[in-house]
Amino acid sequence: MPEEYELLTGDFAQRGRHTDEAVSALALAFTDEFPELPGPRFPARDMGIAPRPARQPRPPIWIGGSSPAAIRRTAAFGDGWLPQGTRRRDLPGQIAQLRQLRDEFRGGAPIDIGTIVEPIYLTSGGSGWDLPSWVLSGGADEVASSLRELVDMGVNHLQVRFMARSAEEFCEQTARFGVEVGALLNH
Predict the structure, then answer these.
(1) Structural domain includes residue 19
(2) What span, in angstroms and rounded, lies between the C-alpha atoms of 80 and 69?
(3) CA–CA distances in Å: residue 19 to residues 3, 74, 120, 161, 177
(4) Is position 35 within any domain?
(5) Do 143 and 106 contact (CB within 8 A), yes or no?
(6) Does the residue 30 lie in any domain?
(7) CA–CA separation, 81 vs 96, rounded Å?
(8) pLDDT at 115
(9) Residue 16, pLDDT score
(10) Helix (H) or strand (E) holding 93
(11) 115 C-beta neighbours (distance < 10 Å), count
């Protein structure tokens, strides 16, 4: 929100530049215990960062967002991308744009691509429930086939969520997904 940004950190129009610098600073802090951060927003030197990450050379940095700036930032600085609000039909174009920019900025270095899948509801002979059209519903084969479409687009991390009318049904949907759909995805 522009008002929050202005109140807490200043010039909203500079938020992209600030985020780029912050992501670069984070990567340096993960790899160097005493990083020299040139700034201008986050200058630092002679300052130790501890505890050190267990994962070497550093933990992966995932960047979210679907704007052109977020895709550019991911290509330049990220190890993974999780789009926000991208419609499935728009995902191939954004992935292509990300890969093109990745080639330019990082010589085609590997990158993980995630997506937040439509809410899932596994049916068994009929749900007895009128589900919205945007819910990914059906049997295990149908759901797995739809998820494989995302993998074919270049997605290698799926964030799943489930429709349910109760905590019990949520647990049942989650367990069924793991057993029935998971087995079909691990080929």
Answers:
(1) yes
(2) 15
(3) 17, 11, 33, 28, 37
(4) yes
(5) no
(6) yes
(7) 13
(8) 96
(9) 87
(10) helix 91-106
(11) 25
Q: Is residue 40 part of a domain?
A: yes
The Cβ-side half-sphere exposure at 125, using a 13 Å CA radius, reads 0
Task: Quickly tell me which residue has 């330019």 as its tokens.
Answer: 104
Q: Residue 61: is it exposed, middle or buried by C-beta count within 10 angstroms (0-12/13-18/19+)?
A: middle
Instruction: Please report the pLDDT score of residue 121 as a whole number.
Output: 96
pTM, two decimals, is: 0.85
The whole-number pLDDT of residue 97 equals: 97
Number of independent structural domains in the chain? 1
Collect all residues with Cβ–Cβ distance below 8 Å to 34 and sequence separation of at least 6.
45, 46, 47, 48, 49
150, 110 Cβ separation under 8 angstroms: no
Closest alpha carbon to 49 in 25, 76, 30 = 30
Residues spanned by the domain of 50: 1-59
Task: Give me the pLDDT at residue 66, please.
Answer: 93
Mean pLDDT for each 10-residue chunk of the chain (187 residues)?
84 87 92 92 89 93 94 96 93 97 96 96 79 94 96 96 96 96 86
Which of 128, 185, 130, 126 shows the shortest CA–CA distance to 160? 185
